Amino acid sequence: xxxxxxxxxxxxxxxxxxxxxxxxxxxxxxxxxxxxxxxxxxxxxxxxxxxxxxxxxxxxxxxxxxxxxxxxxxxxxxxxxxxxxxxxxxxxxxxxxxxxxxxxxxxxxxxxxxxxxxxxxxxxxxxxxxxxxxxxxxxxxxxxxxxxxxxxxxxxxxxxxxxxxxxxxxxxxxxxxxxxxxxxxxxxxxxxxxxxxxxxxxxxxxxxxxxxxxxxxxxxxxxxxxxxxxxxxxxxxxxxxxxxxxxxxxxxxxxxxxxxxx
Length: 262
Description:
Layout: H1 18-28, E1 30-32, H2 45-49, H3 61-75, E2 80-83, E3 89-92, H4 97-104, H5 113-118, H6 124-136, E4 139-140, H7 141-147, H8 153-168, E5 172-178, E6 186-191, H9 192-195, H10 197-204, H11 208-222, H12 228-235, H13 239-254
Antiparallel strand pairs: 1-3, 2-3, 4-6, 5-6
Helix pairs in contact: 4-10, 4-11, 6-8, 11-13, 12-13
């Protein structure tokens, strides 16, 4: 039997279809596309390829599947895909997306780009990209760069940095592919609030502290022995936030239906 690498989980069978991938992400709540050093999360790569981070990277049919699914899953709204944990490709299920949005306080509307810019939460390039998506709807990379006047080599650097900023706040995610040139297909991007309106609406009613508790509880389902510092590093929480989240997670485990004792 193939040994399960660190950070990965045992899964009953090799993931072979998009439906299998969706079930996997739904079960975990959130995971990364590929194994990432210093990110203690399972990947989709492992249960598809059965190759760990120390194995040779092979561009075969298994790799092609996950590379295709990273665009197909969000296009079908089965999961959001964005460069989130340490700026690396991350899947978040629709069930747990509201908690991430509440935690980051980024349950917003399409027209909120000016407000977040005024508050200093995003830079002007990110505001420009957000505004273009708000006005035009989902856009592929080259068209989006053109609309934002980032066509040059230096502009591309600005575009990539701004996109990382937006995705790190889960304001923007991938939304399929588009053939813009005769070469590689381009990524299409969409505002999270439009791709996942129900999840965004749900996030408005969730307190950030409650969201942290829910995420800690979900994470500890697969990693019950995770020390507080591991959660703090993964989610970017302070020591006090981590302690409160773990306490809430433990309370939820001991009293899962919210029944009063006594």
